[in-house]
Amino acid sequence: MTDSNYKDMEDSMTEDNTENRTAGGIGSLVDNVPKLGFGLMRLPRIDGGNDIDTEQLKEMVDLFLSKGFTYFDTAYGYEGSEAAIAEALVQRHPRESYLLATKLPAWKAKTTADAEQMFWTSLERTGAGYFDYYLLHNLGADRTHTFDDFGIWDFLAKQKQSGLIRHLGFSFHDKASLLDEVLSKHPEVDFVQLQLNYADWENPMVESRKCYETARRHNKPIVIMEPVKGGALTTLPDAAVAVLRKANPKASLASWAIRFAASLDGVITVLSGMSNMDQMRDNVSFMKDFRPLDEQEQEVIVKARIEIEKVPIVPCTSCGYCLPECPQNIAIPGIFEAMNNLLLYGNKRSCSFTYTWNTRLQGKGVASDCIECGACEAVCTQHIAIIEELKRASDMFGE
Questions:
Q1: Which of 334, 332, 339 is nearest to 314 (CA)?
Q2: Closest Cα to residue 174, out of 147, 153, 129, 204?
Q3: Do both 288 and 339 map to the same domain?
Q4: Domain count of the chain?
Q5: Residue 266, SS3 per DSSP
Q6: d(Cα 70, Cα 157) in Å, to the nearest integer?
Q7: Closest to 132 measured CA to CA, from 169, 187, 84
Q8: In a domain, 318, yes or no
Q9: Domain that holds residue 347
Q10: 337 and 296, same domain (yes or no)
Q11: Residue 314 domain-assigned?
């Protein structure tokens, strides 16, 4: 599908969209969106396989909407996600009842035409007619320049003017200094999407706090991603769990992480990549009548962070960006999952099975297959020293 297919739609929506921007404005972004968003990267799968469990997703979508939440976040690069949300959400609920966000990864394109086509493909896949929030996907490191090389900033500005995009922003995985540079160069953006969680708040490799402060200094509202750090903040060291359980025995570990993120000023919503109904039920239970962390709870978070930092786990979020870059087909996130479980819980037998399952039994490479080319490190959103960590994994699992 090309832009010509949407010409009539553009003409009919331009006037309405101009009125919408004038009436609502960017200042309304933070106040008018419920503070829990549905991240559609880690969708439920049938029997743990590759096929998305669309029927379970429909139940999750319905529950999410019934509790008053509206924000759904997908991406061109989330395999099967845009088509799945078309079936589970767009085709089943009135367009005005939800907010849909997706993203364009220009760094995956080879030409300007390829990059622009991603936008039209996302419109076709979702069938949403327009996007409430649209993002340049994953700015940072060597990826950032591709959006300039292909003229994507101007291209998307045109789509916003036509009404196919209501709010335009970008997601970001890098240091605060680069974020400041991008926001200084593009003050026109409506919002930014950042990885913010209490474990990374003072992490010098991720710079969560510094990135947050940079966005606020530029007066940009924030969508928060990875508040639970890809699920890592639900599998904490025993000492950290003890700190949180002592403060509130009934609160889930995920609730501490999501409430921390949602308590920050200037937040549009906090995305949680919910993979099953249990996670959905838990999240909506404490976010329906959201209460920011009080001063004592903030102190509990600091104590838990101190305990987490005592364990040398790998800060992998299983985003998978490294996988297509590896010439050896090494199961990098799966290896780090087994490593972290061993470091946190010490069950060598169980973790060795996890390691074998995630590597050889899935037809993927093991840690010792690494040829140290560095392709994985160039795209790692967490800036992990992957080569050195794979060496550590090889030693831990006796290869």
A1: 339
A2: 204
A3: no
A4: 2
A5: coil
A6: 24
A7: 169
A8: no
A9: 323-396
A10: no
A11: no
Plot region of 140 (φ>0 → left; ψ -120 to 50 → alpha; else → beta): left
Q: Give the C-alpha separation, 94 to 71, whole Å.
A: 14
With respect to residue 361, please indicate whether it lies within any of the assigned structural domains: yes
Residue-wise pLDDT for 357-378, tens only, equals: 899 988 999 999 999 999 999 9
Rounded to whole angstroms, the Cα distance separating 240 from 343 reads 14
DSSP string, 269-337: EEEE---SHHHHHHHHHHHTT-----HHHHHHHHHHHHHHHTS---------TTGGG-TT-B-HHHHHH
| DSSP, residue by residue, 191-203 | EEEEE--TTTTT-
Domain limit, last residue, from 277, 309, 341: 309
Where residue 30 sits, what CATH number does that domain have?
A: 3.20.20.100
**pLDDT tens figures, 24-71:** 345 566 668 999 999 999 899 998 778 999 999 999 999 999 999 999
**Whole-model pTM above 0.85?**
no
- Domain end: 309, 342, 372, which one? 309
- Do 71 and 119 fall within a single domain? yes
- Whether 266 and 328 map to the same domain: the answer is no
* Of residues 130, 131, 127, 129, the one with CA closest to residue 102: 131
Type of residue found at 95: R
What angle, 0 to 180 degrees and rounded to 10, lies between the N-to-C axes of helices 295-309 and 253-262? 120
Are 269 and 368 members of one domain? no
User: For residue 226, how far is the Cα from the chain centroid?
Assistant: 5
- Domain membership of residue 82 (yes or no) is yes
Please give the full DSSP string across 56-81, using - where no structure is assigned. HHHHHHHHHHHTT--EEE--TTSTTH
Work out the number of other CB atoms within 10 angstroms of the CB of residue 80.
Answer: 16
Burial state string for 65-75 with b = 16 or more CB within 10 A and e = fewer than 16: bebebbbbbbb
Does position 124 have pLDDT exceeding 60, yes or no? yes
* CA dihedral sign, ordered 244, 247, 251, 255: negative
Contact 279, 58 (CB under 8 A): no
Tens digit of pLDDT for each residue in 246-296?
A: 999 999 999 999 999 999 999 999 999 999 999 999 999 999 999 999 999
